[in-house]
Amino acid sequence: MKVAGDWIETPATQAVCAMLNDAGHQALFVGGCIRNALLREPVSDIDIATDALPERVIELAENAGLKPVPTGLKHGTVTVVADHIPHEITTFRKDVETHGRHAVVAFSDDIIDDARRRDFTMNALYAKADGTLVDPLGGMDDLHARRVRFIDDAGQRIREDYLRILRFFRFHAWYGDPLEGLDAEGLEAIAAHVDGLASLSRERIGAEIVKLLAAPDPAMSVAAMRHAGVMRAVLPGADDRYLAPLVHIESDFGIAAEPLRRLACLGGEDPVEPLRLSNTQARQLDLLRNEISSTKGAAELGYRYGVKSGLDILILRSALLEQRHDPESAQILEKGASSHFPIRAADLMPDYSGPALGARLKELEQRWIASDFSLTKEELVRL
Predict the structure, then answer these.
(1) In the chain, what's the furthest Cα-to-Cα distance?
(2) Residues 131, 114: contact at Cβ < 8 Å?
(3) What residues make up the domain containing 224?
(4) 5 and 140 both lie in a single domain
(5) Which secondary-structure segment (H or E) carries 382?
(6) Do 210 and 321 reside in the same domain of the chain?
(7) What phi and psi, each to the nearest 5 degrees, are found at residue 10?
(8) pLDDT tens for residues 16-47?
């Protein structure tokens, strides 16, 4: 079987493979680029596994006129840049000892060693420079079935890095079959190791949750997380009952997936600190959570927060309140977003000052919004 795609035929990428092959070393594409190519998903990163040691990779790249960057020498990784395309080349490795993220590894010349230390069978697929598939662990069967399955012993894979619990559900959301894609043995091992999530940094957990919620339809994956006890561990108090309706509304009206909107839909305790979101993400999430229950109409939401945030709030309300989403709301939001309150503080002085000035401005602004932005400056001043 052959792996195909423009990315694999690119002259720069073929030159990197030839650099290794011509020197008698193996050059095998591995991981996400193979998985995505076989699923006909976009390929963004090119990873190459080799039996050449990192120092040898650097030497060969320099001799070939390519740019080697020692991005992770102690882990066996060198990034070789060819025609502005980065190729992450990593020497075959095998685990000697595992302590979560701090595994002791040794370089190897055996592809089986390298495959067995990866997380899921669908990520242990390789291909030669000509696209010939190499499947040392039978991962192709799982990929065809869109089944996310840990390599060998699921519990051992999880203990090597507890983030793999969240990756399991993220990969299911993106690549798995909604109903059959969750391996039963994997779910059982996850339920038994949920406490290990407490050892992870909040940044890593937050990044993984955001990636999961960015999937086209993560509802089944999030439901499985709840059943396995994972939701309770990372998002206390969260409730996923409204996630599927939200995704349905997004799909019906062609609204792009937005992780923060979906995170707001889950509710529960404030997730900003547990997930260590950025300041920008935290502000946006607070806005969505606070405005779900407000009485502001579409026009006012557009005026105050812009079209995107206003639309997020409206479809969240539709999902949580089980209301029909108005497809014309986007036009109303746009009208509000393009409207500008015609009154300034100076227009009301010296008749008003201090707190009275602020209160009057607020009052007139609300009347202007209620008039559908039709009241003019002169009309407002006379009120």
Answers:
(1) 87
(2) no
(3) 151-234
(4) yes
(5) helix 377-382
(6) no
(7) -60, 130
(8) 999 999 999 999 999 999 999 999 999 999 99
Q: What angle do CA 105, 109, 113 make, to 5 degrees?
A: 55
Across the chain, where does the E strand assignment appear?
28-30, 46-50, 67-72, 77-82, 85-91, 93-97, 104-107, 126-127, 133-134
- Quick one: 243 and 330 in the same domain? yes
pTM to 2 decimal places: 0.89
Are 373 and 299 in contact by the 8 Å Cβ rule? The answer is yes
In angstroms and rounded to an integer, the radius of gyration of the C-alpha atoms of the chain is 27
Residue 358: which H helix or E strand, with range?
A: helix 354-370
**What residues are paired with 106 via a beta bridge?**
94
Beta-bridge partners for 29? 48, 127
Query: Domain containing 188 — which CATH number?
Result: 1.10.3090.10
- Distance, in Å, from the CA atom of 90 to the CA atom of 201, rounded to the nearest integer, reads 25
Query: What pLDDT is recorded for position 365?
Result: 95
Residue 376 and residue 323 share a domain: no
As a 3-state breakdown, the chain gives helix, strand, coil percent values, each rounded to 5, of 55, 10, 35
Determine the number of helices (DSSP H) and then strands (DSSP E) in the chain. 21, 9
C-alpha dihedral (71, 74, 80, 86), degrees to nearest 10: -50
> Are the C-beta atoms of residues 343 and 381 closer than 8 Å to each other?
yes
pLDDT digits (tens, 9 = 90+) for 116-155: 999 999 999 999 999 999 999 999 999 999 999 999 999 9
The answer on 188 and 115 residing in a single domain is no
72 and 108 part of one domain: yes
Distance CA 125, CA 135 (A): 5
Among the candidates 87, 110, 144, a domain finishes at: 144
Domain boundary among 171, 200, 234: 234
What letters, b where the CB count within 10 A reaches 16 and e where it falls short, cover 134-149? Answer: bbebebbebbeebbbb
Structural domains counted in the chain: 4
| Token reading at 152 | 């060998």
**DSSP type of residue 89:** E
